[in-house]
Amino acid sequence: MDELRQKYLGAIADAADEPTLEELRLQAVGKKGEVSLRMRELGRMTPEERQEMGPKLNALKDEINSALAAKKAALADAALNERLRAEWLDVTLPGRPRRQGTIHPVSQVTDEITAIFADMGFSVAEGPQIESDWFNFDALNIPPEHPARQEHDTFFMSRAEGDNRPPHVLRTHTSPVQIRAMQETGAPIRVIAPGRVYRCDYDQTHTPMFHQVEGLAIGRDISMANLKWVLEEFCRAFFEVEGVELRFRASHFPFTEPSAEVDIRCSWADGSLKIGEGDDWMEILGSGMVHPKVLSAAGVDPSQWQGFAFGMGIDRIAMLKYGIPDLRAFFDSDLRWLRHYGFSALDVPTLQGGLSA
Ligand code: DAH
């Protein structure tokens, strides 16, 4: 009996895992276990023997059962402690900096422009970048002999062999969106149309793809005075200069009459550009009163409606606002360059203030 006791209590104490414990339980107190078999023998004993052996065997069975339970709990504890040790995490370690993108200056400036004009009641219109030459030229009163229609300015798409229709073009300006917007909603209308435009041109201030924003306001009696106020209001908000001064210079565009180019007062003192002060003028956009032929082409009756339009280079005013010297850098540069000009990632708090370079 003592032998049995020592054998099982020792084995239980030494058991390394739960399956071993279960094995021991079956061997000792399972249906065919050693202790159970001994208990079955009680029936063949004399009453005296039984009285002596019965309680001993019962006590042994209880002892083995509690040793099993205690060992099982100890094994579970040890497993948990081992996990706690192995899966330990140092929450005081500094975070790993994550690479962050930034909003491209052109996108940011486009959003700024859209927000400012939205405050003045302009909604956003869009048109395709591959445009028919009717929308890009004819509807805008640009005659076939106009220089903008010559090969060296415009990217023409090619037609299939034998297709003699005029080729589509990569739109050379956002002005065709005027026509599309008026066709869609008629007058009155107040929209801006920001987007990509294309011309065969490449130097410090020209890239083959660039961005313009078109403005269009048509009503019963919209005048040049309204144009002037809207543009001044825009420049004040965009350049964040209170007393911003604009100069309207008589000009010519086929799609406006009269037409004006608009300059903004600036200075180039010690090589850096300041908007709103000084004796220089910088051209920022073309504008005018929408030509009656343009209204007619878009299905708007010029005897009932009139209004202004303007077209502004987004990249260009972004360069002016942020003092960026080379337009090409916009489309061929990296994050360090963007950070240099103060364009940062979206304002998301990070553990270490982002990738401070
Ligand atoms: N479309 C002209 C360009 O690309 C810019 C322009 C001038 C747009 C006068 C206008 C405008 O709407 O009225 O150079």
From TrEMBL:
SUPFAM superfamilies: Class II aaRS and biotin synthetases (SSF55681), tRNA-binding arm (SSF46589). Keywords: Aminoacyl-tRNA synthetase, ATP-binding, Cytoplasm, Ligase, Magnesium, Metal-binding, Nucleotide-binding, Protein biosynthesis. It catalyses: tRNA(Phe) + L-phenylalanine + ATP = L-phenylalanyl-tRNA(Phe) + AMP + diphosphate + H(+). Its cofactor is Mg(2+). Pfam families: Phe_tRNA-synt_N, tRNA-synt_2d. PANTHER family: PHENYLALANINE--TRNA LIGASE, MITOCHONDRIAL, PHENYLALANYL-TRNA SYNTHETASE. This is Phenylalanine--tRNA ligase alpha subunit.
